[in-house]
Amino acid sequence: MGLSVAQKIIKQHLVKGDLIPGKEIAIRIDQTLTQDSTGTMAYLQFEAMGIDRVKTKLSVAYIDHNTLQTGPENADDHLYIQTVAKKHGIYFSKPGNGICHQVHLERFAVPGQTLLGSDSHTPTAGGIGMLAIGAGGLDVAVAMGGGEYYLTMPKIVKVNLKGRLQPWVSAKDVILELLRRLTVKGGVGKIFEYTGEGVKTLSVPERATITNMGAELGATTSIFPSDQVTYEFLKAQGREADFVEILPDPDAVYDEEIEIDLSSLVPLAACPHSPDNVVPVAELKNIRVDQVAIGSCTNSSFKDLMKVAKILEGKTVAEHVSLVISPGSKQVLNMLAQNGALASLVSAGARILECACGPCIGMGQAPRTNGISLRTFNRNFEGRSGTPSAKVYLVSPETAAASAITGYITDPRTLGDEPQVEMPKSFLINDNLIVPPAEKPDEVEVIRGPNIKPFPQGKPLPEVVVGKVLVKLGDNITTDHIMPSNAKLLPYRSNIPYLSDYCLTPCDPDFPKKARENGGGFIVGGINYGQGSSREHAALVPLYLGVKGVLAKSFARIHMANLINNGIIPMVFENPDDYDTIEEMDELKIENAREQIEKNDVLIIENVTKGLKYRMVLNLTERQRKMILHGGLLNLTKAQGKN
Ligand code: SF4
């Protein structure tokens, strides 16, 4: 039986399991990437493993998220990451070098290899034929230490691209069309693999725009074949030696199939407040725009910004519009500066920001109250822009540029002939903002400013676990409730003691105090506890406060994995009515905890205060049981001698 591109790469990297969807597999990781927001914790965890040098083929630490320096915290984090990277064999991409996914695509991504990144848009590198997956910082730390990455074998969805995009229609419209059809839940547990005659009409950056926003479908990753177009991109980056052809076998078998006729697509927009709320741009034409933001890891490539420059050439941004542009990388900005396109942007009235995530992560450029913002980004959740009342529309660079000129949401097809932009035969290569690892690591001192604090580590599970119910929560508690993340708290991601003062405070302002006074304890939750994001801090901070277990009616999958990674026991009520009998400050007790976790699928926990016993379901794999017994993934990895 033939294999698809994704199946071929997985098979080559398979350490455990088979290519059977729904079953757990483990794969070897060739490359890792981190960004600063998740990176500090990942490197603290890597250091805790006691490994001298990374064991991957390549690891890169990027600074692109928290580049505003209104206090010393971000600068402290950057210096810590720079020095820890230098010491342990990791390349360091300095602030200003660009957004991790754009730079990785340009300078490091290799077809056929695996990439694990502590950022959800890591699948961007699927545009070059890499199997690229976003994961928690701890998973990335383990991969840097040579550990395999565990995941559920996804279903492979064949996305058959027919035809060719019409003028003014772009790669962004392809992925918006998929989001329109499948919604933000449509990709869960799946890899989207693009095939068909339409593939060769798309450049690598265009492919990367599509794989980038596969994350919004909830997909494990997305991937394009590595073909002649890939070769030409790598050659233009001076990296033809990294090329390897990877095509699907003609008789490859897929689990599902979707067809998109590229020639039938029109410019699309995702309306507030979800990336799948997609309609044709033409239907939005009289909406007045306050801000246009062009950039992000979705649409900030050289070709994207050249197109914008040509549309803006000789024009002026509408009086009531603020146009901000963040180039994806120093390479892109440098080339725009050299060929004069930057002058077109500036003279049209664009405000040029640094090469970083910027407005996409709420670091500046919040729109006005009730403002309408058009963005080429990948997310438009309520409040993400920094202005709770703002309405954000996600569009292509073409639609964004056209609307910046007219001041209203504008279908770019109304502008007449589309300016043509070719992919360059050679990119401007200057890696002087990438610091290589030290040749003599012993001579490097890791510098920890006051914002770098040790992180909590789980302890091996004792025979008897006792503690009070610290809080009883309702249904659908999000990771934002558990560990709020906002512009004020973001700089403290490597400072768990500081963050712990905010743990669960949106639900119970006294939770941190109660946890401290009682030496930790248990959390009781309702349905879908921990929904929202992969935020590891939503497990790390409770661990720091001494939380030993969470009893809930059900868990969100990723948060449950994060609890286990940190040695906190997730337990599901076998009888949901038992939830009603528990009250705050009840004392709970698990006898024979080690044996129960090791052997049983149902754990008995006693409510000492009420004289009741509850049957709690443990949905744990063999490996997850070991993690809890050892007090988390780090301890297990150390015990298994990965170092
Ligand atoms: Fe995340 Fe936005 Fe940065 Fe992309 S540009 S990595 S989506 S913050």
TrEMBL record:
Q: Which Gene3D superfamilies match?
A: Aconitase, domain 3, Aconitase, domain 4
> What region holds the Aconitase/3-isopropylmalate dehydratase large subunit alpha/beta/alpha domain?
7-407
Matches recorded under InterPro entries? Acnase/IPM_dHydase_lsu_aba_1/3, Acoase/IPM_deHydtase_lsu_aba, Aconitase/3IPM_dehydase_swvl, Aconitase/IPM_isomerase, Aconitase_4Fe-4S_BS, Aconitase_4Fe-4S_dom, Aconitase_put, AconitaseA/IPMdHydase_ssu_swvl
For this protein, the record's Pfam families field holds: Aconitase, Aconitase_C
Positions of the Aconitase A/isopropylmalate dehydratase small subunit swivel domain = 522-575
Which cofactors does the annotated protein need, by name? [4Fe-4S] cluster
State the EC number(s): 4.2.1.3
Q: Which domain of life is it from?
A: Bacteria
Record's keyword terms, sorted: Iron, Iron-sulfur, Lyase, Metal-binding
What is the enzyme's class at the highest EC level? lyase
Q: Which GO terms describe its molecular function?
A: aconitate hydratase activity
Q: Does the keyword Iron-sulfur apply?
A: yes
Q: How does it assemble?
A: Monomer.
Please give the PANTHER family that the UniProt record associates with this protein: ACONITATE HYDRATASE B, ACONITATE HYDRATASE, MITOCHONDRIAL
Protein family per UniProt: Belongs to the aconitase/IPM isomerase family.
NCBIfam families annotated for this entry?
Answer: acon_putative, PRK00402.1, PRK07229.1
Q: What is this protein called?
A: Aconitate hydratase
Originating species: Caldicellulosiruptor morganii
